[in-house]
Amino acid sequence: MKKTHKTDFYHLRLLCAIALLSLSLVCYQLLLMHFLTIVQWHHFAYMVISVALLGFGASGTLIALFRKYLLQQTQILLPFLMICTGLLMPLALRLSRSDWIRFDSYLLFVESSQFVQLLLTYFLFFLPFFTGALAIGITFVKKVSDIGVFYFSDLLGAGLGGILAIIFLWILPIDQILIVLAIFSILSGLLLIPLKRRGYLLTFAFFSLLITGYQIGKPLRFFDSQFKGLSYAMNIPEAIINTERSSPYGLTQIVTAPSMRYAPGLSLNYTGDVPISYTIFNNGDWYGSILPWSRKDSIHLLDYTTMSIGYSLGIRDKVLLLRPNSGLDPGHALSKGSKSITIIEPNKIVVSLLNNEYAAITDSIFYNSALRVHSMEPRTFLARNKDSFNLIQLPLLGAFGGTVGLQALKEENLLTIEAFQQMWHKLSPDGVIQISAWLDFPYRISLKCAATLIESLESQGIKNPLSHIAAVRSWGTISFIIKKTPLNAENLKDIRAFCETFYFDPTILPGITKEELTRYNGIEDEEFFDNLNAIFTYKRNSLYDTYPYNIRPTTDNKPYFSQFLKLENAAQLRGQLGQQSASFLELGYLVVLVTFVQVAILAILFIIAPLFKLGWKGNKKLWVLLYFGGLGFGYMFLEIVLIKHFVLYLGNPIYSVATVISVMLISSGLGSFYSSRLRAQRKTLTHITLIIIFFVLLYTLLLGPLLENTIYFQLWGRVSIAVLLIALPSFFMGMPFPTGLRVVAGINQTHVAWAWGVNGCISVIAVALATILAVETGFITVLLLVAASYTMASASNILLKN
Amino acid sequence: MHKIAIIVGFLLVFGNCFGQTNYQAQRKVMVDLQIKARGITDQSTLNAMLKTPRHEFVPEERKIQAYNDGPLAIGYGQTISQPYIVAFMTKELRLKPGDRVLEIGTGSGYQAAVLAEIVDSVYTIEIIRELGIAAQNRLKRLRYNTINVKLADGYFGWEEKGPFDAIIVTAAAEYIPPPLLEQLKDGGRMLIPVGQPFLVQRLIRVQKKNGKIKTNSLMGVRFVPFTRTKSPGID
């Protein structure tokens, strides 16, 4: 059989076609995610794509139901399906932009008609994944004896697709990438066109290429939700998009209009002009503002905001700005006499724009000798750098008018207790950490901020932490500082003077009186102050438990700062805030819950449907379900945990995700290739799964400390370690699936497709479930569940005979 | 054929009357259940809400939802606020018939129409041309002759018509424009709702007294904290 691999030309063509098809499908998936995030929000992108990926599970169902017919027609069917996939890829995306299908996710909870459009969108994106997966599934079922090699080509293609997607996003616009991917898929079909009856297929391929080619030069309709920041900005008369850059960081656009201004929570005693600003949008959401600035300016707009509190304590000559607001915060620091300003901005496109096209507006601020800019994750910088600073400033949290919970599932590694511990160690003796937030209502962000600061101080054994902390409040923002040494009488005097000058009120200050709290700015519910007080006392835990929102500080294990929803309170919140408001308050997490429910229901249907034909009992069905389900859960859970670890380790979210996905898939492919040499028997399955469990347990204990101790290495060193650590378990994780399929084939050929479907469905459920588990219980639980999933797969082998 | 025409004509004329009556009834229910029931008792506000035909200010396809207890999208990412919020803001302005009011962000024109039922002159500024023109035409058609609409950037206010007894900013920004504070009379009130569409959370009242400015956050949507043990007071 092995000799046939080299000699059979069709076999070789089939391997290449599968690799090419997988490559284009993974590229398409990443592109779709990117595109939907631009036109809607990433949670909705995730919701749509989860359903689309169920195409893999559905293909298993269809093959299980019509196996005989489908396998008889493979010579025609495979090229047909591959060409179909290519044709559908750009068409689905273009049709989804048409007026009668395009939906606005913001209106989903308000207008029931939007659900029809959402269903149509689901269906459109489901199609290319379904046809592509059907071609792959039929091949696996047909070639189950050589599954190790075919699964290798599938994973290799997918792994390369992950890398290629990043490259494409740098060099091509989205509409052109779509055409390239469509051509890849059509080419994969052309590779398999048989000699007989090729006329129809060639004609179909020709017309598919023609339709695809027709779309060249027809740009995609980027019709954002009317509720996105960019849409609001574009409604302003004479608003224009000045600059547009598409990259793996997203679609970065800079908008200007004669009436566009930015002055967050500006003091009411400011009588000057608020200058016209340029606004940076990333994927249609506000990212930052560029305000005209000159080193000759005597005052800075931010002087009139609570964000100046750090400077009210005296000159801060060594400043660290973590994810600063474009050129605004650096300009403020320079105007305050700072001599050394370190800027950590992960988005390279924004840095490049400020360095080049927009340098003139900000007096070439990034060329100032006092500034050093690093483009990396702030936590990576904090872990690697050994300097100390006398002001560490974090970005303004929340959004004007409160958030709608769309950041709920964003991992915010900079806002955890551990992050503040790291910052604390980088402070010089008189140094302060400053963090500001928009005031929201019901109060969530400000309370969680206070809780995080106080708990981070306590966790480091600081005696009397309240003497290190202060906060001031305007009509719209609140700024906190924590000082390395206790605030002295002069500091308190300076803060009070700062408040008096700008109509701000001290909110936390040693020795504060009740009258001081609302001298200039009254508040909706004065219980806010009681709650702040409770956070600083032993009553904190009781408040965490009883407060309707989750205000418990976040940790690296559960870094979801913006996740405020307590599931057990959801119904009560609806009663208090009204159905609509409650929905919008925590939109992000609700969307993921909805995603999980819809995916789970569909997946269960796809898993059950073939049993009506295959029968409910016999042929080791329970084993198939437990074994392939366990593999699906385990693989996806581990992928998510590894992405979380390596984003911080490598310091760049885009490249880290690409590295983890691609290295995992390619290594698993190699493992699959190697597994062809193994005998398909119970013992083999048990041994492989036990090796994987060993790795997972080892990683549970050692991965964190290992990465922590090597984060100081140069980039090449860290990349090498990352590749090694990802590749090792992944190599073994590529073996159980193809070997298991061979075992299934040995029991009953008709069950192979079902096993493929079970694995496909469970993998999609696993991604949604992992997100919910990470939010509710933390990443350690997810890692332990990787071990549990593989243990389930391993233990299920008891059901097999030797 | 002739009979059919009469029946159709009858239905058109009286159907419309029934529709009007229906809207009036819906307004009454809206005022009773959404506004009075939530504690707003200011008679001038209640009268204004009862008189203003809200259904005329929403897109045709949403007329059926006009008196629902929620905001409605009116296009361009804008919404017509929930009736309760409109009433709450109107009440909080503490208006008298002779007051001169400036509104920033005309939107559909509904808030301006409610204000015009109480005061003699309302000045309203809209920056989105399409919305402003539509509101201007609508207000003219509905004979709100005391409302003046201007298409301009609200940042600068309406200096030549100022100073104002009350200013209402319905489309709030991340800052309170200094020119608006200047155009507010001493003793005047400015109201700014802060929130996302479909989610008004905070309402800020700015008061100018003896040259000093004070703000107060009012509750747009009353948020009742869950029962819990009493928290310690402030030292």
Description:
The complex is a heterodimer of chains A (802) and B (235). Chain A has 802 residues and is an alpha/beta fold. Helices cover 58% and strands 10% of the residues of chain A. The model of chain A has no long low-confidence stretch (mean pLDDT 88). In chain B, strand 1 (72-75) and strand 2 (78-80) form a beta hairpin. Chain B is of the alpha/beta class and 235 residues long. In chain B, the strands form two sheets. Chain B has a seven-stranded mixed β-sheet with strand order 5-4-3-6-7-8-9. In chain B, helix 1 packs across helix 3 (83-92) and helix 2 packs across helix 3. Mean pLDDT of chain B is 82; it is low at 1-19 and 220-235. The longest helix of chain B has 34 residues, at 2-35. The chains are: A alpha/beta (802), B alpha/beta (235). At the A-B interface, helix 10, strand 2, strand 13, helix 18 and helix 19 of A face helix 6, strand 7, strand 8 and strand 9 of B.
